[in-house]
Amino acid sequence: MRPQRTDVMDYAAPRRLAIHGVTGPTPLGFLLALPLLPFVPLIVLLRSRGRMPWTLEARTYPWGRRYPPVVLRYEVRAREHAGWALDQLVDGLERGDGAPVLIGAERV
């Protein structure tokens, strides 16, 4: 029996059947991305000013790959804090903390 793919992060990049060795996004994705493309600079500006949060997401398998992962999600307001929070998150997971508390980040 094959395991069911129910992980949320796996849905972000689903497996596709290769047609002649070529895989890629669907044409519908291109059609939806084109009207939203002018808003990308605005979103980057708002995130750099701290108005919109950056989201850090980490997946850890404390009981092995057979069991579902623990997904940790944090919101960080400033871009400088995102780098620090990412370093703290990596250090905390390496130490074996279940859900590390990050300075400058809020757990969601």
Number of helices: 4
Low-confidence stretches: none
The quaternary structure here is single chain
Q: What's the mean pLDDT score?
A: 78
Helix content: 25-40%
Query: For the largest beta sheet, what order do the strands appear in spatially?
Result: 1-2-3
Judged by helices, strands and strand pairing, the structural class is: alpha+beta
Distance linking N and C termini: 35 Å
Number of E-state strands: 3
Order of helices and strands: HHHEEHE
Q: State which percent range the strand residues make up.
A: 15-25%
Radius of gyration based on Cα positions: 18 Å
Shape: flat
How many strands, which pairing sense, and closed or not: the largest β-sheet?
3 strands, antiparallel
Count of domains: 1
Comma- or semicolon-separated keywords:
single chain; 108 residues; alpha+beta; three-stranded antiparallel beta sheet; 4 helices; 16% strand
Structure in words:
The protein is of the alpha+beta class. The chain has one domain (18-107). It is 38% helix and 16% strand. It has four helices and three strands, in the order αααββαβ. The chain has helices at residues 8-11, 27-36, 40-49, 79-95, and strands at residues 54-60, 70-76, 105-107. It has a three-stranded antiparallel sheet with strand order 1-2-3, covered by helices on one side. The radius of gyration is 18 Å and the shape is flat. It starts with 7 loop residues before the first helix and ends with a strand.
What's the gist of this structure?
With 108 residues, the chain is an alpha+beta fold. The chain has one domain (18-107). It has helices spanning 8-11, 27-36, 40-49, 79-95; strands spanning 54-60, 70-76, 105-107.
